[in-house]
Backbone:
């Protein structure tokens, strides 16, 4: 999961830098891309973590009954 977060931040930052360089605003593009990568990567990390926790929690709850 950590690799997915790093890949999202790195990929979006690179893409933002590339688009920003093309438009003449490389720093702004890098910043916007990095922020989008952080937001998207953290969203995916939290979503996946909740799925795993809910899946494990349901199995343990069934064993107690």
Residues:
């Amino acid at each position: 999961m950590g690799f997915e977060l790093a890949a999202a931040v790195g990929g979006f930052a690179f893409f933002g830098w590339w688009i920003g360089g093309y438009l003449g605003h490389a720093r702004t593009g890098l910043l916007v891309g990095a922020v989008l990568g952080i937001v998207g990567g953290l969203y995916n990390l939290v979503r996946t973590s909740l799925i795993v926790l809910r899946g494990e929690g349901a199995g343990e709850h069934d064993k107690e009954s």
